[in-house]
Structure to design on (411 residues):
């Protein structure tokens, strides 16, 4: 049985729900990556080492679906837009390569589900790896890479990291972090 | 566009914005929506509103980098002129804390709070963030994370600064002096039964850091003597 994904309703105006699954020991990452890049699979695959809390992905996905609705996306698809929104740089290539997967063996798979469209079942069956509980995400987070990516090194020890990360993500279009 | 408003509970309406509470992305959220000013030209209005939203969000994230707690930002939405941010359900304004909870017996507790206020305002100024509207209503007390009790008179607290709608980046002693003066005036009118309150905050402000502070303090004294506006005479 597949463990329960992280499910959250995005902005009510978009009528979209985000579903996130965590996979480990994935053997066909390149196939997954190619299918996503070519637009065959409607989902995004994220490196779990840069995610501290699934809420971080929710904030990025929420912004992505709103940009799609308002035709203000910076990248080509709403799924690459999620990767772009996760990053605090405005460099698209950098954002996509850092947050997207390559030959990774662990990954987060995100689906945008609407009343008329849910591609998850079909895609999930083609992932060669083990789906694990989203609560295991902490095991995969690399604090070193996270600190680097979000420039957290200068912060006080007891800082609320998720708060700071999402606040930086949503302001990157007009604040240089 | 108005569709989403159905599930929103209005919390407060000010001159610049409306505040709504809702559940957003699974979290208790506060929406600050700036409304259109009909007396302004629509293009100018849009421009001003967008600038103010950016300004407010910028100050909130800058504070975090310097260890001043502020609400987390969940979405900055220029289409709807809204900032979506963390709603701190377990919180009390410093104003209500003083009015409702401080008595003669609990005065020492007030000292820890004035200490925190002084330190935080100093941190803002040290990093050239001028709040612009320092009042005891724009400061919240929350239980420190891990401390689930909502007993304001015991347990560790954190101070959260809110409402950066009038904030700006300012480096001059004049800006910081005026910011302190605004706080003093606010405290005199809200908490006139605690005549030493501002002095306690100012003392904490002064000792927070060794860096030189004389200039700001002397500007503050100057502003206090003349009022917030500079005289344009001569």
């Amino acid at each position: 049985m597949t463990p329960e994904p992280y499910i959250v309703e995005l902005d009510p105006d978009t009528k979209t729900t985000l579903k996130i699954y965590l996979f480990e020991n994935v053997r066909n990452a390149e196939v997954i990556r190619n299918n996503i890049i070519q637009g065959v699979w409607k989902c995004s695959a994220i490196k779990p080492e840069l995610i501290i809390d699934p809420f971080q992905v929710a904030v990025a996905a929420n912004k992505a679906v709103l940009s799609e609705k308002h035709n203000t996306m910076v990248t080509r698809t709403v799924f690459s837009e999620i990767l772009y929104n996760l990053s605090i740089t405005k460099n698209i290539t950098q954002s996509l390569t850092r947050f997207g997967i390559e030959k990774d063996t662990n990954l987060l798979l995100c689906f945008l589900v609407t009343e008329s469209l849910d591609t998850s079942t079909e895609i999930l069956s083609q992932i060669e790896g083990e789906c694990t509980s989203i609560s295991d995400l902490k095991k995969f987070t690399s604090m070193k890479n996270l600190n680097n990516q979000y420039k957290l090194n200068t912060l006080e020890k007891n800082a609320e990291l998720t708060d700071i990360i999402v606040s930086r993500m949503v302001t990157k279009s007009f604040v240089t972090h | 566009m108005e569709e989403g408003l159905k599930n929103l509970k209005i919390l407060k309406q000010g001159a610049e914005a409306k505040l709504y509470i809702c559940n957003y992305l699974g979290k208790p959220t506060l929406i600050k929506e700036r409304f259109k000013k009909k007396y302004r030209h629509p293009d100018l209005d849009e421009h001003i509103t967008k600038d103010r939203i950016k300004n407010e969000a910028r100050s909130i994230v800058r504070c975090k980098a310097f260890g001043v707690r502020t609400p987390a930002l969940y979405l900055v939405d220029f289409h709807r002129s809204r900032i979506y941010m963390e709603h701190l359900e377990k919180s009390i304004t410093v104003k209500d804390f003083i009015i409702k909870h401080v008595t003669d017996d609990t005065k020492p507790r007030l000292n820890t709070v004035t200490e925190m206020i002084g330190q935080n305002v100093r941190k803002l100024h040290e990093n050239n963030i001028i709040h612009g509207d320092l009042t005891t209503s724009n400061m919240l007390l929350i239980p420190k994370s891990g401390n689930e009790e909502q007993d304001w008179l015991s347990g560790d607290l954190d101070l959260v600064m809110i409402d950066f709608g009038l904030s700006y980046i300012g480096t001059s002693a004049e800006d910081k002096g005026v910011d302190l003066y605004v706080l003093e005036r606010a405290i005199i009118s809200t908490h006139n039964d605690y005549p030493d309150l501002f002095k306690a905050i100012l003392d904490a402000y002064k000792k927070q850091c060794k860096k030189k502070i004389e200039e700001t303090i002397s500007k503050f004294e100057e502003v206090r003597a003349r009022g917030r506006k500079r005289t344009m005479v001569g």
Observations:
- The mean pLDDT of chain A is 95.
- Chain A is about 40% helix and 15% strand.
